[in-house]
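[step 3/7] inverse_fold.run input=structure_tokens len=275
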């Protein structure tokens, strides 16, 4: 049952309580601002609750630009960061596959996650499947050095995707390392077209702590929302966009390598509606 189907059950009761609606939306991580606005409009306007819901969602996402930035002159450089278990490495493979089918031929992976056991091997498997090149270092080697070496390769790549170690938002040293990595990339290429923060949609409001910590370490340009399931708690992205004005750029909708799509607010609403 989707979020809106469950909301319908509450509102269609002979006598529903505002507190019940408030508790439900907060529990699904839509945040206080969204919830208060929804309840206010529901009480004061003679309109269908779905219309109100759609309107507020559209207003929220109208303030950010979801278009993925592709470089006019190759290469396009994507940096991926996120907490452990967010689906970062899998998202790299999905996006590489996505752009391969859009005509990008020369693709490079840089395995900047040198700390997690098996991370480089996992990325290597994806690179082999996709026909991409990969640069990797030794286990526990300096990630910035591995990335520097990867960016120093003479080949003309159209797309470079850079993995990083999973970060815990409370670990200052790891976050400072991200700042170092960002400087290395910009000094070497002059650009980062997208710095994606990968967020597990099941994480809930803890994602707030992640976003706050990461934007203090590196210039986040967009969010990849993984493990999106309209029956769980995808509302968390709404208060994040309201608070930080960071657009969602991709949604991961399943485990298959094809299960990723560029974010469109209409699609997001449709999934909440059960479409």
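[step 3/7] decode complete -> sequence:
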């Amino acid at each position: 049952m989707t979020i809106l189907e469950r909301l319908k059950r509450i509102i269609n009761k002979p006598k529903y309580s505002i507190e019940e609606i408030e508790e439900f939306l907060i529990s699904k991580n839509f945040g206080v601002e969204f919830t208060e606005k929804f309840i206010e409009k529901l009480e004061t306007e003679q309109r269908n609750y779905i219309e109100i819901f759609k309107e507020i969602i559209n207003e929220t996402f109208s303030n950010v630009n979801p278009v993925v930035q592709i470089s006019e002159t190759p290469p396009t450089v994507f940096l991926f960061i996120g907490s452990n278990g967010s689906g970062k490495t899998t998202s790299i493979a999905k996006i590489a596959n996505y752009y391969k089918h859009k005509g990008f031929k020369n693709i490079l992976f840089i395995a900047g996650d040198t700390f997690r056991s098996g991370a480089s091997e996992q990325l290597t498997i994806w690179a082999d499947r996709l026909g991409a090149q990969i640069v990797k270092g030794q286990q526990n080697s300096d990630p910035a050095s591995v990335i520097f070496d990867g960016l120093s390769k003479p080949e003309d790549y159209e797309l470079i995707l850079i993995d990083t170690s999973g970060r815990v938002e409370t670990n200052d040293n790891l976050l400072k390392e991200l700042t170092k990595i960002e400087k290395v990339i910009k000094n070497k290429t002059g650009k980062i077209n997208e710095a994606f923060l990968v967020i597990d949609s099941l994480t809930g409001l803890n994602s707030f702590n992640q976003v706050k910590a990461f934007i203090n370490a590196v210039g986040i340009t967009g969010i990849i929302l993984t493990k999106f399931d309209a029956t769980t708690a995808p509302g968390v992205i709404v208060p994040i966009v309201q608070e930080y004005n960071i657009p969602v750029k991709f949604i991961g909708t399943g485990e298959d390598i094809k299960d990723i799509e560029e974010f469109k607010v209409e699609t997001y609403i449709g999934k909440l509606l059960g479409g």
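[step 4/7] annotate
Residues 118 and 178 are 20 Å apart (CA to CA).
The radius of gyration is 20 Å.
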